[in-house]
Amino acid sequence: MTTAVASAPRAWYFNRWNQLILGLIAMMAISSPQYVWTLFTGPLNQKLGTTLAQLQWTFSLLIILQTWFSPFQAYLVDRFGPRALISIGALLSGGSWILSAYVDKLWVLYFTYGVLGGFGTGIIYVGVIGLMVRWFPDRRGLATGLAAAGYGFGAFFTSFPIDGMIKSSGYAHTLVVWGIIQGAIGILAAQWLRMPPENHQPANAAPAAAIALQQSRRSYAPREMLKNPIFYLLFVMMSMMSTSGLMVTSNVAPFAKEFGVADMLVLGMAALPLSLTLSRVTNGLTRPFFGWVSDHIGRETTMALAFTLEAVAILILFAFIDRPALFVVLTGLVFFGWGEIFSLFPSTLTDTFGPKFAATNYGFLYIAQGVGSILGGPAAAFLKQATGSWTAVFFVVALLDATTALLAITLLRRMRRRHFAGG
User: Fold this and answer.
1) How far is it, in rounded angstroms, from Cα 94 to Cα 325?
2) Which of 143, 153, 252, 317 could form a disulfide with 136 if both were Cys (CB 3.0 to 4.6 A apart)?
3) pTM value?
4) Cα–Cα distance between 130 and 133 in angstroms, integer?
5) Which CATH number describes the domain made up of 12-190?
6) H-helix or E-strand containing 266?
7) Residue 80, Cβ neighbours under 10 Å: how many?
8) CA 32 to chain centre
9) What letter would DSSP give residue 8?
10) Maximum pairwise Cα distance, the chain
11) Domain 209-421 sits in which CATH superfamily?
12) How far apart are CA 80 and CA 70, in angstroms?
């Protein structure tokens, strides 16, 4: 006698593409605290009676808590799972806006918007990236690129509604309403996020033989990774690219005003806002694009290609920066050559050190973005002040980009080959 055993159908959320969609939604829900902060600075200054410099420490705390604490945040995700921790991250992120609506002292704003918001968004960012590199061993570049793009694109949909509500109903009402919306969306998306089985290999894995030969056969715990020189090379490279990119992104408006193109018309629009809009789009598109490219031609080759593109674009921009149409196009191209660091580095790290501790391991590497956040703007301002022009800034950015590209195809490639050969 035989007994038929019916296999239970798997829930819809165990499909990896559905996991990617959920992660993308969670990322979009946390983009506004960083990207629309500037819309709140005027009303908050008026309410709290502060200077802009004092108020901007709120934003600095947001970035510091999001990046420098990422190893701890990622460890919590690895330890307790994405559903619980990303729910908490969304609660903290949305709650930080709601609480900020009622503050009447600057130090309280530092804590609500800066500390709570930074910690909450950091949990979601490293948690989602760590989850995607597990679900997509054959498409890590594409998956992390799409997830990272969501972080930038989210504000594309919220900037205008938030700006309009501030003008019509005030900043406090806006913080409450959008804090609830963003928190609720993040919490809802988190309810179906799940870790894949250990050593997950999808049945319909994409054929990528070149990449398969460059993936670790075992997973390295953080303490093992931190003893490996490849991690420190990746950290230095990501710090260099983050610094160079932020030297440009934090000074696009000063560049435009210095060279007289800010208000010149391109296609009937002022060059500066058109440049910022295009750059936000290219900075988002580059992440899945170069991630997808790296899945097919290799991480180091793609790094060299993308980083060289930024170096060349920044030099051409410097040569034609006083021409408004070229200013718009070339700033977009510079961003297209920079934003892919958020797909290439986590993919390379997980290929090298395995998926089991992916979130925590990437948390350590993501501190490099914090390094760039601290160095990028001040370094550019120092060079401008010391030399009296922006020339040194452009050449330093190009030098950092070119050096990182060279490191990718020489030292990084050689070290990773030895690493894989040794098991």
Assistant:
1) 39
2) 143
3) 0.88
4) 6
5) 1.20.1250.20
6) strand 265-266
7) 11
8) 13
9) P
10) 90
11) MFS general substrate transporter like domains (1.20.1250.20)
12) 15
* DSSP codes, 297-326: H-HHHHHHHHHHHHHHHHHHHHHTTTSHHH
Q: Please give the pLDDT value at position 7.
A: 41
The CA distance from 71 to 108, in Å, is 26
| 245-286 confidence digits (pLDDT tens) | 888 877 787 888 888 888 888 888 888 888 878 888 888 899
Tell me the sheet residues that pair with 269.
266
Q: What is the pLDDT of residues 309-365, one digit of tens each?
A: 999 999 999 899 889 999 999 988 988 888 899 999 999 999 999 999 999 999 999
Closest CA to 243 of 357, 112, 382, 117: 382
Return the amino acid letter for 409.
I
Two structure tokens written together for 195: 């870790």
Give alpha helix (H) positions in 170-263.
171-190, 209-212, 222-225, 229-249, 252-258
Q: Tell me the residue type at 62.
A: L
pLDDT tens digit string along 137-164? 989 999 999 999 998 788 778 888 898 8
Domain with CATH 1.20.1250.20 in the chain: 12-190, 209-421
